[in-house]
Design a protein that fits this description.
108 residues, mainly alpha, 2 domains, 70% helix
């Protein structure tokens, strides 16, 4: 019974949070507030470095035993993820600071 109560409480919390977000965004549109975007540069770089490390480990495994079979699908997914992350990061970094807002928080 307590589990159902917790689930119901979580649902109410989600609904209340969604309503608060809706009201905030709606008010910001009515008041014509400037909307600020964050680039999350630290998180983007962290993700890129993680992918680089995964690719380096993959390459080292291949060179350690060139005759062993390797997972082509894993390699393809890693390379695609890495390329996509780098491309998006370069694009976001090239945007003008005014695109992120005037608060100077583009590196968040």
């Amino acid at each position: 019974m307590a589990k159902e109560s917790t689930s119901g409480e979580q649902q109410l919390y989600k609904e209340r949070t969604n309503l608060e977000l809706f009201e905030y965004v709606n008010a910001s549109l009515r008041n014509e507030e400037t909307f600020h975007f964050f680039s999350f540069e630290f998180l983007r770089r962290l993700n890129i470095v993680r992918l680089q490390n995964d690719l380096i480990a993959f390459k080292e495994d291949i060179f350690r035993d060139p005759n062993s079979a390797f997972d082509n699908d894993k390699l393809t997914k890693l390379l695609e993820s890495y390329s996509e992350c780098v491309s998006k990061s370069m694009h976001l970094s090239s945007l003008n600071m005014s695109d992120w807002g005037s608060n100077g928080n583009s590196r968040l």
